Amino acid sequence: MLSITLTAVHQQSTIPTVTIYVSAGGSDSNGDGTTSATAYASIDRAAQDMTDAAMAYIVYIDGQLSDAQQLPSSITAAAVTLTGANGLNAAGEPQDAIDRALTSASDSGTALSIEADVPVTITNLKTAGGFTNGAKGGGIDIAEDAVVQLADGALVMGNRNSGSGNGKGGGGIRLYDGTLQIASGTIACNGTGKYGGGIYVPASISPVLAGGTIRDNQASNKGGALYYVHDVSAVTCYLKVSGSIYIPLDAEQKNTVYLGNNYYSQIKLMTALTAQTPVMTITPALYPASTGTRAVLVDDNSGALVGTEHGKFAIIPNGSDQYEITNDGKLTKL
What we know:
mainly beta; eleven-stranded mixed β-sheet; nine-stranded parallel β-sheet; elongated; disordered N terminus
């Protein structure tokens, strides 16, 4: 039996692994998933073989899966990795995909639903073509208690959520009370009719943006790149940022980070930021009055990180009023 050093969202450890193969040309009824020649046709079927809490399961996906895929809450595993079998092409994009290629929205239009409460890592895999019209994410829907990491070669691209009511959003990814860490990869060209074209975070949780690029996403309402709301009356969760995360502003100024509808939605700096400045552009729900300030950036180092990194963020103007984040982490009118 093989063993690997697995980097999951919470810790690094050596865990024995089981390999399962899924292929566009596979069979859920006749395959056994043990080789590429006898691959299953779906991740759903591969999940039925995940029954050992001591094992890390690696699912190799070969080709393009066009049906909706799911990692259900019923699996038992130490961790799961979903990875493309054929690596990246010359342009650096995954050669394997879950691609629904949907042209109209439906309640079941999500490309990949993750409900499992074990660490799930996605690498060298494209998630595309999802199109939902309800409360589910278009590309990846992360349910309560799910723990997901996007790693090298992960690409979430060209997904949509057309929902227009409250609680609707997440063209690329919808995070519902689970855990999301973006260590690498790209979230690009996703859209929504309401909130969070790239990523929608409607609950009081702490997603981690540590690397990768979030670009060219759009929302008809708020948060083209990311919509984040911490909706309780005390700061207990944060949007955590560090390392090489990069969220460039597009020409239409849609790919922004929306910070909630109260003063408790804040960004916590975990390390210095290494991407091109500005690393992201923020659209605050609440702009301070002409003489006021609003805390936006915090850290765990008595403000030392805020003092060196505050200038790496840009702010969308409020009409003709211009704003900046000062060295104490507060949003201030110029």
